[in-house]
């Protein structure tokens, strides 16, 4: 079997193991599958670390790893999605739930490790809750990133471009408590939590700053029980994105001071800054490394972009680790039914990641073109 056929086969296996966030059985099956690929290559068995009941998979890379490969096994798709939308290949395009975000990235990771001289010096972490904010894996990600000092994130590329900066994000939940009353007999005795929610839905986006790239978006709202009752309770979720920590902190201060527009209605705010921004400075040295490797391989010049969405790379950058994101393949449709990935780009990314790993672990240090101070481990 040639390399391309084997990677397609692996991708088919991994996509066919459904791994919605919170599905312990599905995630465990995927972890066993990936262990069968990586254990013989790395030379150690993958370890499960359990945090608040959620299992995450990692390889240590020895006492002082040169680099951490970071990814996640969970997807947003409910169990049973593969019944209606199984893995399928049509020419260069592979489809299936989670194929782009980010099971192809994990296949690339495994194949790249098989090609390098010192796989035992590379740490690997595959979390199980990235799609819901990495609430249990964050501390583990930060610890492993600090230990390695250099992180390659195998999240999907943006049309082939590497991601050198990401907006940070905050998540809020606002609860409203009013007073119920009969909507037909004596509505004036009620205090509508829904009306108060509506005030906030209209007012909160004004905290955004278009010039700074800061967005404040009400995204989920719930209120009321039956048509003839003034709603006593309501709930609102808010998504905030910003390019700088200062902007996230500005919005956070305003969120924590929210008050009611309606008499006798109380407002309670929970949540806060979830992922700090990933700034370009943390990626500069690794982007230079990627471009050198691509040039040696004869690949097209590596492009780089800033991405509005956040990833676990935001956490690794915040602890001071050099971080390069978007090393996964080309494709599109993350979290959507039309999700797809380019197999050709997978094969190209395997070569690129392997070349970077050899340089970052010192395996190509004897070559003059690889001797650049900016890619040495800090």
Q: Could you characterize what this model shows?
A:
This protein has 378 residues and is an alpha/beta fold. It has two domains: 3-167 and 277-375, Zn peptidases (Aminopeptidase, 3-Layer(aba) Sandwich), CATH 3.40.630.10; 168-275, Alpha-Beta Plaits, CATH 3.30.70. Helices cover 33% and strands 24% of the residues. It contains ten helices and 16 strands. It has a six-stranded mixed β-sheet with strand order 1-2-6-3-7-14, sandwiched between helices. It has a four-stranded antiparallel β-sheet with strand order 4-5-16-15. Strand 15 and strand 16 form a beta hairpin. Helix 1 packs across helix 4 (99-115) and helix 2 (24-42) packs parallel to helix 4. The longest helix has 19 residues, at 24-42. The chain is elongated, with a radius of gyration of 23 Å.
Count every beta strand, where a strand is a DSSP E run of 2 or more residues: 16
CATH topology of the largest domain: Aminopeptidase
User: H/E element string?
Assistant: HHEEEHEEHEHEEEHEEHEHEHEEEH
CATH top level of the largest domain is Alpha Beta
Mean pLDDT, nearest integer? 94
> What is the annotated CATH architecture of the largest domain?
3-Layer(aba) Sandwich
Task: Find the structural class using helix and strand composition.
Answer: alpha/beta
Global Rg: 23 Å
| Biggest beta-sheet profile | 6 strands, mixed
Strand order of the largest sheet: 1-2-6-3-7-14
Helix content: 25-40%
Using the alpha-carbon principal axes, give the shape: elongated
């Amino acid at each position: 079997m040639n390399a391309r056929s084997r990677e397609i086969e692996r991708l088919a296996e991994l996509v066919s193991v459904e791994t919605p966030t919170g599905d312990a059985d599905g995630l465990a099956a995927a972890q066993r599958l990936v262990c069968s690929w990586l254990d013989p290559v790395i030379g150690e068995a993958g370890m499960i670390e359990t945090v608040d009941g959620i299992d995450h998979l990692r390889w240590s890379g020895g006492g002082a790893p040169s680099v951490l490969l970071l990814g996640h096994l969970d997807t947003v798709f409910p169990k049973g999605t593969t019944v209606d939308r199984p893995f399928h290949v049509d020419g260069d395009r592979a489809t299936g739930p989670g194929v782009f975000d980010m099971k192809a990235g994990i296949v690339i990771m495994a194949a790249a490790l098989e090609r390098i001289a010192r796989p035992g010096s590379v740490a690997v972490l595959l979390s199980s809750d990235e799609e819901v904010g990495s609430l249990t894996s964050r501390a583990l990600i930060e610890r492993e990133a600090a230990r390695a000092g250099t992180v390659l994130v195998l999240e999907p590329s943006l049309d082939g471009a590497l991601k050198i900066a990401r907006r940070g994000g905050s998540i809020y939940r606002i609860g409203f408590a009013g007073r119920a009353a009969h909507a037909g007999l004596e509505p004036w005795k009620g205090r509508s939590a829904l009306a108060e929610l509506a005030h906030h839905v209209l007012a909160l986006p004004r905290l955004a700053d278009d010039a700074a790239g800061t967005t404040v978006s009400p995204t989920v709202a719930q209120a009321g029980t039956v048509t003839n009752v003034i709603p006593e309770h309501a709930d609102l979720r808010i998504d905030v994105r910003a390019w700088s920590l200062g902007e996230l902190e500005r919005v956070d201060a305003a969120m924590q001071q929210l008050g009611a527009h309606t008499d006798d209605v109380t407002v309670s705010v929970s949540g806060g800054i979830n992922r700090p921004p990933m700034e370009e400075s943390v990626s500069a040295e690794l982007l230079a490394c990627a471009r050198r490797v691509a040039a040696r391989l004869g690949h097209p010049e590596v492009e780089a972009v800033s991405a509005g969405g956040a990833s676990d790379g935001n956490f690794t950058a915040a602890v001071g680790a050099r971080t390069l994101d978007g090393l996964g393949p080309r494709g599109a449709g993350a979290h959507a039914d039309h999700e797809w990935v380019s197999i050709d780009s997978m094969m190209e990314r395997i070569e690129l990641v392997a070349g970077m790993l050899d340089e970052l672990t010192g395996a190509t240090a004897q070559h003059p073109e690889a001797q650049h101070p900016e890619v040495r481990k800090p």
